[in-house]
Amino acid sequence: MFYGERELKVETVDDPAPAPDEVVIEIKASGMCGSDLHTFRGPRLEAPTIAGHEPAGIVVGRGSQVPQEWVGRSVMVHHYFGCGRCDQCRLGWTQMCREGATAMGATAPGSHAEYISVPTRTVLPVPEGLSHLAAAAISCGTGTAWGALKRLDLHGDDTIAVFGQGPVGLAATQLASALGARVIALDISPSRLERAHDFGAWETLNPAETDSVPDVVRELTGGRGVSKSLETSGASSAAQEALHVLDLWGVACWVGVGSTIHFDLTEHLYKQITGVPSWTLSVPAMEDCANFVVQRNVDVDALFTDRWRLDEAAAAYELSERRTAGKGVFVP
Ligand SMILES: [Zn+2]
Ligand SMILES: [Zn+2]
Asked: Which residue among 52, 165, 218, 258 is the one 20 to 30 A from 42 at the CA level?
């Protein structure tokens, strides 16, 4: 349970009782995401909340409207709940519900628990061959990378600069490489760059060791710059450079929360660049991502460097806050 102001406690709560249209899921994997830290470090919460928003597990219970055959299914959860009726909900962009969405681990109970109960419309089957760990990552971190690459309309003949090689950036490096694109991975941590190389990066680049990132990127690309760029770190300097590394007609995408971009129109107008912020992904895109990962044998499990029990939560978030580690997961 997160209380805000870096306080967390492991507590025993009642098992969730399903509403008529809900299923109860026994959690097999609940991933840790960078955005958990916003709630963890944030102001004191009025009511403590169960953390976690990357759930995967097995259906073990059902509400009165849910058919019996759901029980025993392996599932993952799109972790936002909307009204289910508005245009955005019908498109699968539940997080953008016109009536206002709630999000697991923030405004709705999260998945760092043994059991959760969620509406069936937010639940997707885990395709055969996909682990619960990978399904959990696709529920947010890896899914966010996939959503961004789709917003960028990434193709195999693109060269993409991926800023930040934390869990989302590394997933972007992995998926973009699997899609056939050339990836230039950027991070200030040498160990993260080493991992990016292992995950398929064509080139790696440490901004702390160069005077001008755009100059080096241009050198690597025959003087032109990249066709696509993606910023995942939330650092304003990186968000800015995501624009400056682009070739003519390039497209920049930002998923890292918290940065500010100063936009000099004159420079970018004559390059005809496009900028697209991106917020996680839709329900159908989550299904696409899961299927792609299975079909192309993408080793999403390799993203996870730390496995934790629920009673190790304090140590898990302490490590997560230091931001040097890879990605953690609770395996209750
Ligand atoms: Zn809605
Ligand atoms: Zn997340």
From this structure: 165
